[in-house]
Automatic annotation (TrEMBL):
This is Altered inheritance of mitochondria protein 6. Belongs to the AIM6 family. Keywords: Signal. The keyword Signal applies. PANTHER family: ALTERED INHERITANCE OF MITOCHONDRIA PROTEIN 6. Residues 1-17 form the signal peptide. GO terms for biological process: lipid metabolic process. It comes from Roridomyces roridus. GO terms for molecular function: phosphoric diester hydrolase activity.
């Protein structure tokens, strides 16, 4: 049976209320990462492009929008490490008690991009800050990194220890396996997502959330309408991460939902 443990000392005793909100395309915000953290939103997403000639992972929506001053390191990994270590001030701490989910959307070829992403995580890894699966134990870290987009599942499954995880297809959890003799679980895929247009109705969405929870996996649906009624539908279903572009609007909607 999969066991969970925490081996790192808490770097902050402050605990914030978890909001089921994911900052979709976070890097497009006025102040990436910080806009989310200022609202105590603890899940953000970066689209990553590996350019071998430069030896860098750039963050951009399309290859044509690459700005060579904006890298995964400069926009996310460096500031995150600073917040954890206490050298960078943040309205919301990042710690084992308040973990951040970082989705890395592989835009370039998955197998080619995989090792550079692993290498980029080394500073967080060296500090013991990454959620890690090793020797049958999943240990919660201050940061849980989940690969999506072109992330190669086979590479994730083969990794031992593992600190880069996979975003599974929530519709296929019962119909597919992550590998021979393996079952889905948070040690491979702590998150399962799908384009909401692939879901027939609210009842199916609710069923998919329950299915994910049966595997110990958190749920997310993307490309959803940006409205209070839509957000409330996901809140009511217990969806773990409500994909959102309007962070203030969805945060206010969550506060109203909680107060109702």
């Amino acid at each position: 049976m999969l066991s969970f443990c925490v081996v790192a000392a808490l770097l902050s005793t402050t605990v914030v209320a978890v909001k089921p909100i994911h900052s979709h395309n976070d890097y497009t915000r006025a102040v990436p990462l910080w806009d989310a953290l200022n609202l105590s939103i603890m899940s953000v997403e970066a689209d990553v492009w590996w350019v071998p000639g430069d030896g860098k992972l750039y963050v951009a929506h399309t290859s044509g929008e690459i700005n060579k001053s904006i890298t995964l390191q400069s926009l996310y990994l460096g500031p995150i490490l600073g917040i954890i270590n206490g050298t960078v001030a943040s309205a919301t701490p990042i710690s084992v008690a308040n973990p951040l989910q970082l989705l890395i959307d592989f835009k370039t070829d998955g197998p080619t991009t995989y090792q550079p992403v692993l290498d980029a995580l080394q500073t967080l890894r060296a500090g013991g800050h990454l959620t890690t699966y090793a020797n049958g134990v999943l240990t919660q870290g201050a940061v849980t990194v989940v690969g999506t987009g072109n992330t190669p599942l086979a590479s994730v499954v083969a990794a031992e220890p593992r600190d880069l995880f996979f975003d599974a297809n929530i519709i296929q959890l019962y119909s597919t396996k992550p590998g021979v003799g393996l079952e889905w679980g948070p040690e491979i895929a702590p998150l399962a997502s799908v384009d909401y247009s692939s879901v027939s109705n609210t009842a199916q969405m609710q069923e998919l959330v329950r299915n994910a929870h049966d595997f110990g996996i958190r749920s997310r649906f993307w490309d959803t309408a940006s409205s209070v009624s839509t957000w409330d539908t996901f809140f009511s279903a217990g969806s773990d991460w409500v994909n959102a572009d309007d962070l203030t609007g969805v945060s206010n909607a969550w506060a109203a939902f909680e107060a109702a």
